[in-house]
Amino acid sequence: MTKKLTLREVDLDLDRCIRAVEAGEEFVITRDGKPVARLAPVGGKRAMTPTQQAAWDELRAAMDTGWALDAAPVDRDTLHER
Q1: Alpha carbon 6 to its chain's center
Q2: DSSP state of 62
Q3: Which stretch of 4-8, 31-35, 54-58 has the lowest confidence by average pLDDT?
């Protein structure tokens, strides 16, 4: 999810914003509540956090094995317990 920052926030703490971008964060910079710029990693690729990478790996493994045809219905709460 892209985070929003005001131009003033960026001006006051640009170093923190750059460190966050280096870690894969992406920001939309606003002026008077309107988007004016995007601050993103060069190349447009976001780095995943270890938690995101683990979730991605788990998803890929589930896709490789597939779902059992006789599996019980899965509801939203069950999916978010993982």
Answers
A1: 19
A2: H
A3: 54-58
Angstrom distance (rounded) from CA 20 to CA 49? 12
Tell me the DSSP string of 19-59. Answer: HHHHTT--EEEEETTEEEEEE--TTSPPPPPHHHHHHHHHH
pTM: 0.52
Select the more confidently predicted residue: 51 or 74.
51
Tell which CATH classification among 3.30.200.20, 3.40.1620.10, 1.10.1790.10, 3.30.1330.10 matches the domain 1-67.
3.40.1620.10
Name residues whose C-beta falls within 8 Å of residue 49's C-beta, 6 or more positions apart in sequence.
24
